[in-house]
Amino acid sequence: MDKLRRRAWAEIDLKALEHNYHTLRVMLPQGCRLLAPVKADAYGHGAIPVARKLEALGADYLAVASLDEGIELRRAEVKAPILILGHTDPVWAGELLEHDLTQGVFDEETARALSRAAVREGRTLTVHMKADTGMSRLGLLCDERGLEAAAETMARMYALPGLRWEGIFTHFSHADGSEEYTMLQFTRFLDLLTVLEGKGITFKIRHCAASAAVLNYPCTYLDMVRPGIAFYGHYPDPSCQGLDGSGLTPLMTLKARVASVKSLPAGTAVSYGRTRVLERESRLAVLTIGYGDGLPRACSDRLRVWVGGGYATVVGRICMDLCMVDVTDLPGVKPGDEAELYGPHVPVEDAAELAGTIQYELLCNVSKRIPRIYLD
After folding, report:
1. Catalytic residue among 199, 204, 272, 368
2. pLDDT at position 6, please?
3. Which residue among the candidates 39, 53, 130, 255 is catalytic per the annotation?
4. Cα separation, 368 vs 155, whole angstroms
5. Is residue 115's pLDDT more than 50?
6. What is the C-alpha separation between 66 and 309, in angstroms, rounded?
7. How far apart are CA 324 and CA 342, in angstroms?
8. What tens digit of pLDDT does each residue of 18-54 get?
């Protein structure tokens, strides 16, 4: 598609992905594996192109959230090991086997069902055991009161036929904010591993560190790390920016076209609900992007965009397909110009703060109707 025909688009810099990959890789001790999460369409960046690039760079593992996401990558001829971090109904065990996908397992009932299915197929399914050390989400609860019971359950799961228990993992809930709680979770995980080793149960891959822990707590690396948002050039929290090297580089720049520019007199109401009335004679540029494209409506009247070599603020409510910005002080702005919504001049973190959310959500929310252009 000719770039000039696009109303809005996202440029994805794969060289920035390569930079982030190497920045993270050099932080790891020799032998520590690097897993790259490409779930949620690679955090909105496009799962297939990103996965192919990460595979070419040498990522040891990829991770997705669902069976469908894993199959999508296999059909795109991605060969790297893929871990499904989320739930898969055991009825689809045949699909897991067919597409050589590793499944996270969170309870004994699911483990038994997957075991029966694998035995029926006469094959072995690779699985990773999930321990809940304080996230209170998926996994067997492994706090101080539940440690022994969890270990007994895990021992029964480990003995089931048809399953190859390659790994065990947990997830930190506050590694970007609380060292005390993170170390409590890590200690619980280590205690669990010790109890299991006493039962003769070991795992090739033990992993627990996502982006915040990778950047903050090298002691948690173990056999593999799985930074997510860091691969895409963003820090989970400003406190995590103290890593060595040149830092992380965002991949995505979200752009839209200027559709029109017109002068309006003072006292003119702008957009739905007339929430904004112009206090001076103004020039407004209409941008071809709105909340239907993932631009958060909560940023109405506040978000700054980069256009015509300067900043312009959104005026009035963001519409489904369009928004208006004040370019009174940018006389050179004209129809056809490019405007940057997220990117080098407008960090997505700024929009997230205005919207009362996190950058993860805004990146994932960039609509499918926004074409991704890959720069390499």
Report:
1. 272
2. 84
3. 39
4. 44
5. yes
6. 42
7. 16
8. 999 999 999 999 999 999 999 999 999 999 999 999 9
In angstroms, rounded to a whole number, what is the distance separating the alpha carbons of residues 119 and 142? 29
Q: Is residue 217 flagged as an active site residue?
A: no
In the numeric block, which tokens belong to residue 102? 């590793």
CA 263 from centre of chain = 41
User: Any alpha helices (H) in the chain, and if so which ranges?
Assistant: 14-25, 39-43, 47-57, 67-75, 93-98, 108-121, 147-158, 179-198, 211-216, 348-355, 359-364
Of 157, 82, 164, give the one whose Cα is nearest residue 123.
Answer: 164
| Per-residue pLDDT tens over the stretch 118-163 | 999 999 999 999 999 999 999 999 999 999 999 999 999 999 999 9
Chain position carrying tokens 């190859």: 164
pTM comes to: 0.95
Pairing verdict, β 33-37 and 224-225: parallel
CA–chain centroid gap for 204, Å, is: 26
Q: For residue 208, what are its two tokens?
A: 């627990």
CA atoms within 13 A on the CB side of 48: 10
- Which distant-in-sequence residues (6+ apart) come within 8 Å of 289 by Cβ? 7, 8, 254, 256, 295, 321, 322, 323, 339, 341
Q: Which residues of 65-99 are buried (b: 16+ CB within 10 A; e: fewer)?
A: bebebbbbbeeeebebbbbbbebbebebbeebbee
CA distance 163 to 93: 11
b/e per residue, 165-174, with b = 16+ CB within 10 A?
bebbbbbbbe
Given the structure tokens 């909105």, which residue do they identify?
A: 44
Question: Which among 50, 89, 95 has a CA at the least distance from the CA of 70?
Answer: 95
Read off the tokens for 2: 């000719």
Active site residue 272: yes
